[in-house]
Amino acid sequence: xxxxxxxxxxxxxxxxxxxxxxxxxxxxxxxxxxxxxxxxxxxxxxxxxxxxxxxxxxxxxxxxxxxxxxxxxxxxxxxxxxxxxxxxxxxxxxxxxxxxxxxxxxxxxxxxxxxxxxxxxxxxxxxxxxxxxxxxxxxxxxxxxxxxxxxxxxxxxxxxxxxxxxxxxxxxxxxxxxxxxxxxxxxxxxxxxxxxxxxxxxxxxxxxxxxxxxxxxxxxxxxxxxxxxxxxxxxxxxxxxxxxxxxxxxxxxxxxxxxxxxxxxxxxxxxxxxxxxxxxxxxxxx
Length: 286
Prior knowledge:
The protein is built from 12 helices and 12 strands. The protein has helices at about 5-10, 15-25, 30-35, 55-65, 95-125, 145-155, 170-175, 180-190, 205-210, 225-235, 250-255, 265-270, and strands at about 40-45, 50, 70-75, 80, 85-95, 130-135, 165-170, 195-200, 215-220, 240-245, 260-265, 275-285. The strands form 3 sheets. The chain has a 6-stranded parallel β-sheet with strand order 6-11-10-9-8-7. A 4-stranded antiparallel β-sheet has the order 3-5-1-12, with helices on one face. A two-stranded antiparallel ribbon has the order 2-4. Helix 11 (about 250-255) links the parallel strand 10 (about 240-245) and strand 11. The radius of gyration is 23 Å and the shape is elongated. Mean pLDDT is about 95; it is low at about 1-10.
């Protein structure tokens, strides 16, 4: 995976620069007080716990934005499983850039790798089934593109990226429209015909109304197990099914047993702990 192609595709530079400006409003007093300008150095990227690495292009790009001559060599591939103590790469750049960019680069890499690690652990529970694992919009404001990218690296799939990306009629949309049928009819009349219409339902009565109105996907939200199994059977062949609502690694296998098409989990992005990584052994180059 080429770093620049990824950056151009996802337009991450602006977000990385905002993070750098947050950490370096006008200068890095600590680095500038002990390191002469122009002195180059090299540091090692070390993994401090087992996991799945994701965000290597973002890590490298952080240093490139601080020092156009920065060079990053990785010894692990994006999406690979890494081990505690493993040397993942080396960064060569001006020492001021290495010191100033260290925390921002590690914050991105640790956050994205944590999401990929958790997602991989959940995705493995779905292997051999016909159920796809989806993320949600429960992401950190301003970091959605990084976090949804990490879900893909971990083996999950992305639900809609934003509100412009697809039609999903939830309880408040239905309340505003007056009924499930009216909400679907309004979406059908307004949205481009190429867009699928997904509707969140909480009862069998709402599900039947959504199916009769021609919903393409029904999101079965927070239904008790006995009702959920009935709902999936009822929708079979009439609409795709998605289960949502407090889905975690601990309970996902139960939901999959019903034969649902999709399972979406906000936990992939809002509850995944960061992977512990470190930039160590910084030394000047003669």
